[in-house]
Each structure stands twice: as C-alpha cells, then as structure tokens.
C-alpha cells in the first residue's frame, strides 16, 4: 500500500521518473496494480532494463495491456538485447579478471 501511495504521489507531480519510466497511467488509475511503463524503442527499453540491472535489480515484472502480444514482442525484441549486453559484460569481466 505504501508503494502505491508513493507511486501515486510521484505520478501526480511528474510524468517521467527516469529516462524511460513513464508514470501518467499511475496518476490516472490511483496507482492500482502495475501502472508504470518503460517507453521507447526496443533498444531504449533494453538500455533502461540494463540500468536497473546495474542498480542491482534481479527480478522484473514485464507485462502490458495486451499480455500475449506484449510477451511476444518483449521476447522477440527486448530480451535478446538485454541478454546480449549482460553476456558482453560477463565476457569483458572474465577478460579483465575482475
């Protein structure tokens, strides 16, 4: 409940939390459920997901207004980009010996 209230308060004052997180849906619905959206091209959304990964996020809930079509689009267009970037970073870490 607290998260919902904080989200609603933020959404009433701002439309974008960070470079891709869009909040007007939260303001319109009173922050019921999952009411924010990452917006942009697949590359931009993947970049935003990598930013969350860099911040230590280990689990993300990805869904949209059309769950089946959105899951297909994410699986086809976004998730491969995120996986490729994480794999690139892991290869770089192994080479550097970090």
**What is the terminal-to-terminal distance?**
40 Å
Number of helices: 4
Largest sheet: 2 strands, antiparallel
Low-confidence residue ranges: 1-8
Oligomer state of the chains in this structure: single chain
Instruction: Indicate the structural class.
Output: mainly alpha
Report the helical percentage. Answer: 55-70%
Number of strands: 2
Rg over C-alpha atoms, rounded to the nearest angstrom: 15 Å
Strand content: under 5%
* Shape type: globular
Secondary structure elements and their pairing?
Blueprint: H1 2-13, E1 21-22, H2 24-29, E2 37-38, H3 42-54, H4 67-96
Antiparallel strand pairs: 1-2
Jot down its keywords.
globular, mainly alpha, 98 residues, two-stranded antiparallel sheet, 62% helix
Task: Describe the protein.
The structure is a single chain. The chain has about 100 residues and is mainly α. It contains four helices and two strands; from the N terminus they run αβαβαα. It is about 60% helix and about 5% strand. The protein has a two-stranded antiparallel sheet with strand order 1-2. Helix 3 (about 40-55) packs across helix 4 (about 65-95). It is globular. The termini are far apart. Mean pLDDT is about 75; it is low at about 1-10.
Task: Report a brief summary of the structure.
The chain is mainly α and 98 residues long. The protein contains 4 helices and 2 strands, in the order αβαβαα.
């Amino acid at each position: 409940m607290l998260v919902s209230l904080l989200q609603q308060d933020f959404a009433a004052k701002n439309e974008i939390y960070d470079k891709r997180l869009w909040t007007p849906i939260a303001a319109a619905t009173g922050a019921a459920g999952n009411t924010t959206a990452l917006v942009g091209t697949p590359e931009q959304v993947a970049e935003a997901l990598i930013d969350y990964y860099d911040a230590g996020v280990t689990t993300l809930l990805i869904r949209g207004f059309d769950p089946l079509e959105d899951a297909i689009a994410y699986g086809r267009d976004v998730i491969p980009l995120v996986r490729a970037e994480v794999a690139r970073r892991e290869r770089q870490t192994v080479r550097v010996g970090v």
